[in-house]
């Protein structure tokens, strides 16, 4: 929790200043800044000092396998970089812990919260979910209406096939630009549910624990079988710690998060458009 808080307040210092932007990725389209890199370096140094045998996987740096292969810290030092660089206060610092590839603890710093100030959401398996010292829980609504806010990715209507039933009970759509922020708002009940087109591991590792401990459900999509199922652990190859980190870095799957009834309702009525089943449902008019 304190790692996320300290890194988050450092991000706020950068937020007030002009920042030089670089671009990463194969097509050089993903923005990154000194704020991302300094935040991750602080978190890595702190974890290595306090948990020297644990592995670390960060968005900006390379994977660092630990002697104790059962524990892995997953770090997104600045989720919502584009918002951050445009001085929009919807970004987050997200830190999750995996035990045997299962998310078991997480902390997410946000610059604005239901408390009206910067705050840290945190949770651990079996311990509940909190916004600072206040317990939080997902919305208990069983059906979305026009007053319920839901978060979806950019080009949502192009990327997913929605049934008529979902279109009738979809809620008011929003795109916030920070997956970790959206997961936090689901855990605290501000958002009814959220659909993610293809989050990376560091985007959701902490948020999964928050949502589940707040009474919610996280479902991921199996492209081979064309089905949604609960995300309990991250599947990897088992040829060694280094290969595991490479596999985790390549993890990329659609996700639905919300209370259990709503999450399964959305899953029954939503399919990624690029899947074969999605094409068939589109042809059938659903």
How do the helices and strands line up, and which of them pair or pack?
Elements: H1 2-15, E1 21-24, E2 30-33, H2 34-50, E3 54-58, E4 68-79, H3 81-85, E5 92-99, E6 102-110, E7 119-124, E8 129-131, E9 134-135, E10 149-151, H4 156-159, E11 160-162, H5 164-168, E12 172-174, H6 179-187, E13 193-196, H7 201-213, E14 216-222, E15 227-230, H8 241-249, E16 255-259, H9 260-268, E17 270-272, H10 276-283
Parallel strand pairs: 3-4, 10-12
Antiparallel strand pairs: 1-2, 4-5, 5-6, 6-7, 7-8, 8-9, 11-17, 13-16, 14-15, 14-16
Helix pairs in contact: 1-2, 6-7
Describe this structure in words.
The chain has 286 residues and is α+β, with helices and mostly antiparallel strands. It has two domains: 2-135, 2-Layer Sandwich (Fructose-1,6-Bisphosphatase, Chain A, domain 1); 149-283, D-Maltodextrin-Binding Protein, domain 2 (3-Layer(aba) Sandwich). Helices cover 33% and strands 30% of the residues. The protein is built from ten helices and 17 strands. The chain has helices at 2-15, 34-50, 81-85, 156-159, 164-168, 179-187, 201-213, 241-249, 260-268, 276-283; strands spanning 21-24, 30-33, 54-58, 68-79, 92-99, 102-110, 119-124, 129-131, 134-135, 149-151, 160-162, 172-174, 193-196, 216-222, 227-230, 255-259, 270-272. The strands form five sheets. Strands 3-4-5-6-7-8-9 form a seven-stranded mixed β-sheet, with helices on both faces. Strands 13-16-14-15 form a four-stranded antiparallel β-sheet, sandwiched between helices. The model has no long low-confidence stretch (mean pLDDT 87).
């Amino acid at each position: 929790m304190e790692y996320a808080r300290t890194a988050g307040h450092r991000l706020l210092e950068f937020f007030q200043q002009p920042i030089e932007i670089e671009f990463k990725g194969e097509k050089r389209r993903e923005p990154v800044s000194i704020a991302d890199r300094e935040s991750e370096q602080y978190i890595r140094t702190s974890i290595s000092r306090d948990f020297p045998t644990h592995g670390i996987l960060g968005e900006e740096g390379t994977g660092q396998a630990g002697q104790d292969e059962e524990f892995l810290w997953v770090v997104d030092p600045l989720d919502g970089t584009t918002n951050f660089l445009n001085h929009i206060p919807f970004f987050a610092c997200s830190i999750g812990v995996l035990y045997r590839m299962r998310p078991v603890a997480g902390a997410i710093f946000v610059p604005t919260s239901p408390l009206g100030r910067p705050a840290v959401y945190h949770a651990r398996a079996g311990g509940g979910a909190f916004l600072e010292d206040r317990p939080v829980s997902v919305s208990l609504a069983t059906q979305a209406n026009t007053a319920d806010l839901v978060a979806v990715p950019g080009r949502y209507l192009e990327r997913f096939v929605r049934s008529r039933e979902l279109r009738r009970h979809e809620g008011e759509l929003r795109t916030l630009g920070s997956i970790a922020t959206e997961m936090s708002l689901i855990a605290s009940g501000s958002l009814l549910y959220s659909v993610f087109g293809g989050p990376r591991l560091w985007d959701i590792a902490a948020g999964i624990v928050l949502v589940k401990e707040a009474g919610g459900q996280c479902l991921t999509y199996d492209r081979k079988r064309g089905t949604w199922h609960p995300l309990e652990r991250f599947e990897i190859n088992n040829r060694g710690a280094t290969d595991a980190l490479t596999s985790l870095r390549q993890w990329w799957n659609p996700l639905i998060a919300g209370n259990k009834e709503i999450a399964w309702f959305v899953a029954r009525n939503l399919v990624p458009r690029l899947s074969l089943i999605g094409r068939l449902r589109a042809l059938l008019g659903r």
